Amino acid sequence: MSGPDEELPEETTSYVKSLQERVTEVHHQVRGTLEFSGEVMKLNYYVKAGQVCYKDGDKIWLYNPLQKKGHSPQLHIPWEGPYTVVERLSDVTYRIIGRRKAQPKVVHVNRLWQYHEPGQYT
């Protein structure tokens, strides 16, 4: 049994150094690939999110998955509305209002759907 002070053979130390260099290189390659794929996913998301454009005064449904306490989840309808678009704040955010005296809400475009008539979500 060798003690901690004894040196390892030259072959072992060169193998360990080589292995550490390869692991470091693979780590950098994987990190770069993950960053690149993250950017691609981000761009694809914003392209799809930016395709919808509502104008001031448009009627829309608002998706609100929160359930009221004491109500059956099977009977819950997650779409509320109609709301009216007050202002487009950016490519993906809108200020909307429900009733006249209600506070305006700022919501992401993914939570909005074009209003057609009561009970229709498509």
Overview of this structure, please?
By secondary structure, this protein is an alpha+beta fold. It has 2 domains: 41 residues; 56 residues, Roll (SH3 type barrels). The protein has 1 helix and 5 strands. A 5-stranded antiparallel beta sheet has the order 4-3-2-1-5, with no helix packed on it. The mean pLDDT is 86.
Topology:
Blueprint: H1 10-49, E1 59-63, E2 79-88, E3 93-97, E4 105-108, E5 112-114
Antiparallel strand pairs: 1-2, 1-5, 2-3, 3-4
Domain Integrase p58-like C-terminal: 81-113
InterPro entries: Integrase_p58-like_C
Pfam family, one: Integrase_p58_C
The pLDDT mean sits at 86
Q: Give a quick account of the main beta sheet: strands, pairing sense, barrel closure.
A: 5 strands, antiparallel
3D shape: elongated
Gyration radius, in Å: 28 Å
CATH uppermost class of the largest domain: Mainly Beta
Strand residue content: 15-25%
Strand sequence of the main sheet, in spatial order? 4-3-2-1-5
User: How much helix is in the residues?
Assistant: 25-40%
CATH topology of the largest domain: SH3 type barrels
Pfam families: Integrase_p58_C
Organism: Homarus americanus (American lobster)
InterPro entries: Integrase_p58-like_C
Protein name: Integrase p58-like C-terminal domain-containing protein
